[in-house]
Amino acid sequence: MRAAVVTEFGGPEAVTIADAEVPEPGAGQVRIKVDAAALNPVDGGTRAGVFGAAAGGPYTGLGWDAAGTVDAAGAGAGFAAGDAVVALVHGVAKPLGSHAEYVVVDAAAVAPAPTTVDAVHAATLPLNALAADQALGLLDPAPGSSLLVTGAAGALGAYAVQLAVDRGVSVTGLARESDEELVRSLGAAFTTAPAPAGHDAVLDAAVLGGAQTLRWTRDGGALAAVIPHTAPAPVRAIRTAALDVRADGPRLAELTRLVDAGTLTLRVAETYALTDAPKAHARLAEGGIRGRLVLVP
User: Fold this and answer.
1) Is-contact 95 54, C-beta < 8 A?
2) Local confidence band at 56 (pLDDT 50, 70, 90 cut-offs)
3) Which CATH superfamily is domain 129-242 in?
């Protein structure tokens, strides 16, 4: 099978298409025939060598999001061949990721796919929606409380806005002036930097850092960073935490239900053939993308 990998770290040109063996699922695992896989900033970090190389293999695989069809299932997996699914393929330095024609993943990371969208759109859900949901779990904003989401027009930020609005939280989204209409369409009030101070909670999806975002959080409030180990030291009794996203099939299934209910909006910026993965990485590096780039094997 074909897979997008890196053998030497670098820019978009470092991504190559390798011939790899089709992986076999073990007990409690499924093999997914990948129909679509989103490209995320973390993949750019993997390509550049930020996280190091996969152990024990000739290359490092790319891709966290997968949408497709179960092709084979190990004992006790709970899924059957032909099931349409989405999955989080977790890991920053793994031998193979979801940017491949087939991927094996633990069944605990898999959920039935949304029924109201195609695989290309479904592939934008797992990583960013789970990250948004788990970041909100760190903050635990009460209904009626105020939440500021930085980077509210981005993939993670937009999901966080919609999930928080669905919980009855009063959300303000921080983004560029050109994104005001989008942010308001998600159900949030809109602001540009510098944001007003005094929010009960702040989710820093734009990775602005604690120096700025702590100023926008009230005394005794809560602040969540979205990169592991980057939570700022607490001041003024502010509770701070950093997200380390984890696979969670049951929660992913609830998020797919919210897609089908119209609560979550899936956004695709552009699609690329798997063999054009280097071009997709080059577009990712340019920035300014609204929605996700999606690879189609």
Assistant:
1) yes
2) confident
3) NAD(P)-binding Rossmann-like Domain (3.40.50.720)
Q: Tell me: pLDDT of 144 over 90.
A: yes
Q: Tens of pLDDT along 261-270? A: 999 999 999 9
Domain 2-125+266-296: which topology?
Answer: Quinone Oxidoreductase; Chain A, domain 1 (3.90.180)
> What does the buried/exposed string (b/e) look like for 22-61 if buried means 16 or more CB atoms within 10 Å of the residue's CB?
ebebeeebbbbbbbbbbbbebbbebbbeebebbeeeebbb
Q: What is the pLDDT of residues 223-240, one digit of tens each?
A: 999 999 999 999 999 999
- Cβ atoms within 10 A of the Cβ of 115, count? 11
